[in-house]
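hiii, so i know i said id send this last week but things got crazy w the move. better late than never?? heres the sequnce for the chain we talked about at the cafe, plus the structure i predicted for it. fair warning i was half asleep when i ran it
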Amino acid sequence: MPDRLTSLAPRARRLAPAALTVVAVLTAATGASAVTMRLTGAPAHLAASSSTVPDGLQLPQAPAPAAALPTSSRTSAADVTPGLVQVPRPQHLIEATILVTDAHPMSRRTLRALRHVSGVTATQPVQAGHARVDGHRSFVLGVDPARFRPWTPKLTARSQALWQSIARGELTASFDMGHQAQLPLGATVPVRAANRAPVRIGAFASVGMSGVDAVMSSARADQLGLQHHTGVVVSAPHADALTIRRAVRDVVGSHAHVWLLREVIVIRDAGEFLTRTQINTVLQTAAHQVGKPYVWGAEGPNSFDCSGLVQWSFAAAGIRMPRVSQQQWFAGPHVDYANALPGDLLFWHYDPTDPSNIDHVAIYAGNGMMLVAPHTGDYVNKDGKINQYN
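okay and structure toks below
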């Protein structure tokens, strides 16, 4: 086994229902953020028939499309704020480069300083915090629908029904969370942050921001006790993303989280990748978790979700991995599937509202097999029948 990790570029056509990819992970000592590529409009040389994938490692079946807002006849005054709310359509979209979150509200001085970082063209304050949605641990944003709408992917921004749903007090869950946690679309579920309230799940859609599981209106976030100015989205479309991230960290301090939202290319020498011992440790640690239940948001040791299993396994090898699959996608270089080796990470994207969004991750074990925490109701296992988990 070589002493570096490789990755897998998408092998399915752009319009295929799902794509399978692999990404390698860099050691913490490299200081690298990631190497990746945009998946929207894959170039012709990346397009390939699914027949190029080995028989034992099939592409997953796409789940049902993200549903539109249920009809008003299925809503009630107890579920949402009464009245039809019109959210203006954005005249243009804004690229989200950085998401900053903090446990405490950021000061006006900090927010003003972020707006004046060189290269920053726009900022959007949000309410950010953890909540339990139908019992599942989630990271939630409270937003002004009209102001936040332009910051989302094209298909999400275009859906008038979705934004009216959010404005009325309903929750939009990420397509990933809705699928993996099996949330009941159209039903009212308990949501608990500082306070608890029944909230109707109005839609599944991506907001294009790694680590964000759900979005709701600021009014609904107020009801749940999420504090204002605990998050801010930063746009710097023409600046180097890593430079901007360093500058933002200097402004907000080490206590805040600064999440990179835009893919970047980082070149590192092969000697800075993982050793054989580290790769073996990752595989053995993941294998020892077989039989433990999948729980959305779980990080071990008794249960895991897909990215939690990856994070736990790499931590055993001394590698600090990001928490969620979208961020793990940013953690290493991407190459062709033909070069995939045991210890590489398999990634899927099947969100019809954002083809560039990563939805699922597993550890490749070789010979068409993977170590994976599949979905709610299943267990960590080693299997090659990837399509049964999606």
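btw The chain has a mean pLDDT of 75. thought thatd interest u
miss u guys!!
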